[in-house]
Specification:
Blueprint lengths: L1 H5 L4 H4 L6 H7 L5 H8 L5 E5 L5 H7 L4 E6 L2 H9 L3 E4 L12 E7 L9 H9 E16 L4 H11 L1 H6 L8 H13 L3 E16 H8 L3 H4 L3 H17 L3 E15 L1
Parallel strand pairs: 1-2, 1-4, 2-3, 4-5
Antiparallel strand pairs: 5-7, 6-7
Helix pairs in contact: 8-13, 11-13
Length: about 260
């Protein structure tokens, strides 16, 4: 739990995604339609997407007719989001000045664990209208049994601890999501803060999977030689196992309503 609370302080990892923002936008998975529909049930018109990255989540709500403002600390990621049609302001939620603007929905895809657990929920309450909602969500990959032994063998050779801890290998850190939900409950400003899980399936080629792995901060921040060895081993092992990586994603949603 202490590690979960401290994750937002790891700015090296938090700032690593923009090193190849175009690749991030190209290979990162989408989110299940059922999750988006659950957040659209309250018919939000205005959305603040925190840590919007390249706008992967923001675009899903724009497509459903919402007016979306992305908030992104990395100018390299923000530039890609703008090219994809997302309005973006640069900064963190903790230090951002919204003025008089208030929103119906605050979202964060793959991002809220980088937010200060004390300041973030308080700021979220301040920028939401009464009755507005939060929707914070994360994808966790579950590689299929046909290829999992090959992936495990690659990590065992090059990064054993990473193989045990990465969300790419199926780690679903329930304590992290519980601690985030509790941080919103403690403010006294949110009601019915709950955790739900959705699912969707993706089938990757070996090249696509290795590309995806390189965008994860726990992989990207490995020493360059170690990362290169791991990615080459993953690609070779996947090819030997048939060349495909079938993945079931579990997508965790923390949601709640502003009192």
């Amino acid at each position: 739990m202490a590690e979960n609370r401290a994750l937002h302080r790891d700015r090296r990892r938090a700032g690593s995604f923009g090193d190849d923002a175009e690749r991030y936008d190209r290979v990162r998975p989408q989110y299940p339609p059922e999750l988006v529909e659950a957040l659209m049930a309250s018919a939000p018109k205005t959305v603040l997407d925190v840590g919007c990255g390249t706008g992967i989540a923001a675009r899903l709500f724009i497509e459903r007719g919402c007016e979306v403002l992305g908030l992104e600390p990395d100018p390299r990621m923000a530039a890609v989001a703008r090219r994809r049609g997302v309005q973006v302001e640069e900064g963190t939620i903790e230090d951002w000045a919204p003025g008089e603007r208030r929103f119906d929905l605050l979202t964060a895809g793959q991002a809220w664990h980088w937010v200060d657990p004390q300041r973030g929920p308080v700021k979220a309450a301040a920028v939401l209208r009464p009755g507005g909602r939060i929707g914070l969500f994360w994808n966790q990959a579950q590689p299929g049994p046909s290829v999992r032994p090959a992936l495990e063998a690659a990590y065992a050779l090059h990064a054993p601890e990473l193989g045990r801890q990465s969300v790419l290998m199926g780690r679903r850190d329930v304590s992290l999501y519980e601690s985030i939900a509790e941080s919103f409950r403690r403010t006294g400003e949110f009601g019915h803060v709950v955790i739900d899980v959705f699912g969707h399936d993706v089938d990757y080629s070996g090249e696509e999977w290795v590309d995806l792995a390189g965008t994860h901060s726990d992989h990207h921040t490995l020493p360059p030689a170690q990362l290169a060895g791991l990615l080459a081993e993953l690609r070779w092992r996947i090819d030997q196992a048939g060349g495909r990586v079938p993945v079931h994603y579990e997508t965790t949603l923390v949601s709640g309503s502003r009192r």
